[in-house]
Amino acid sequence: IGMTAGIDWLQELFRDRARATRLFRDLAIGSLLAVALLSLKYVSPPEGLGPMRTGAELRAMPEVANGGYPSNYIPIPFVGEAVLDHLRNPFVWLSALFFLVVLGFRGLGWERSWVSMAVASVIGYVLADLLFMQLYIPNRYTRYSLAVVLALWNARNWDLVFDCLRSTAARRALAVSLVTVGGVSYGVGFDHTKGWTDKLELERVCRFIRQELPEGVLIAGSPHRLDDVMIQGKRSVLVPYKLAHPWFVDYYDEMRTRTRAALAAHFAADPALLNELHERYGATHFLVQKELFSRARRQQRVFAKPYSSEVYRMLGDRRDFFLENSPWPSVLWEDEKYTLVQLPIPLTDVRRR
Hints:
mainly alpha
């Protein structure tokens, strides 16, 4: 926001110096307040987070590369590629051609503030790339702001096009065409399931957790599914997935330790590692993702880098898993995909398997 306002100030400097001076004063005050707030993060990070890793350290971590955990940040596309991602959709360039034909170049609707937002987005992306993760994820500077610019630009110019049409029938026909072309352009090739888990799979077990388990429980399991326990089940988890940010040193060191412990317990041959989660962290329940056992037998990826390979090194040739046939006295809930087990597991339950 500050960068957008700064670009707008530079443009105003060439138009009205008096107004630019007043704007500069307001920007300076806002910037000082922003720096004061941000300094709390960089100078004195909250306890448990620790300092931020440098860009060089992060780029060397498999967690932030393709297939990493919790997301793919490396390699960072060139800024031009990030911008083109927004412009290459057929609806965008077909609309632009239509505007030029109907309105002409001089008739195009455009606002100076859109220039500020677009330029600031590009500059923010480049700076975030150079100062990797110190200014957060580069594509966050273009993903939303450029979409807003395109939405505003299209809205303004389509409104001008509609004003050119006198016939109600023509306006209705154009409106139907817009909806059709836009729907096809943005709908074709868009896979809404790519990279996502079907949340309805977890709805039933999360409803049980939310309704039957008291507040104060701590649920362990495969981190990839525990985010939904937090959101849908409204209960605390041992280690999250999307929130396991690797750029905080102390915080991620702890998340790494917990992730390894949770995965080791998931694929363990006996309940010892499960009960260790209870003794060490106070975990009261464990959510079993049954699909992971069949994936392990097929030698497929069971989690993100670098943890999947660590699991296979731990397993060796073993492919028998204690939780695949969970002791029924400890099972609180089960369906075809998930099992919820109470911790600790008594030795008497183990003998009844």
